[in-house]
User: Which sequence fits this backbone?
């Protein structure tokens, strides 16, 4: 009987102690971010704040993109996202993947955020609040 009580107690503690560390660590991601700069191989494009916004909902793991420009990308819509640890790289501790369309290096510092693929000849997206 004591063994059964121990197992029930252990299982209860294990379930209650589980949490989603990405939600906890990235609650600062919640809300609206303005895409302010896109950097690619051929140079950088500055974007007026508010023209392209990414609105993150960290509880539902969705991002709503509003593109109010003539640019074809990013396409406005609601997408899922995932943030993962990247143990294979010293340069990129976390990655973010939106709508299962490629993983970007992810950096969030205060009111600035970036998604970076420049290490593999991709683009870098810079955001601000």
Assistant:
């Amino acid at each position: 009987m004591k063994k059964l009580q121990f197992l029930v107690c252990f299982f209860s503690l294990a379930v209650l102690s589980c949490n989603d560390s990405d939600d906890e660590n990235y609650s600062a991601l919640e809300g609206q971010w303005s895409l302010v700069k896109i950097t690619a191989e051929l140079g950088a494009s500055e974007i007026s704040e508010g023209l392209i916004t990414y609105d993150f909902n960290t509880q539902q793991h969705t991002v709503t993109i509003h593109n109010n420009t003539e640019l074809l990308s990013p396409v406005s819509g609601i997408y899922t996202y995932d943030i993962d640890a990247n143990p294979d790289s010293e340069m990129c501790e976390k990655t973010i993947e939106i709508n299962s369309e490629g993983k970007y290096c992810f950096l969030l510092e205060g009111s600035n955020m970036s998604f970076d693929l420049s290490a593999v000849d991709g683009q870098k997206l810079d955001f601000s609040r």
About this structure: The mean pLDDT is 79. The first helix runs from residue 2 to 17.
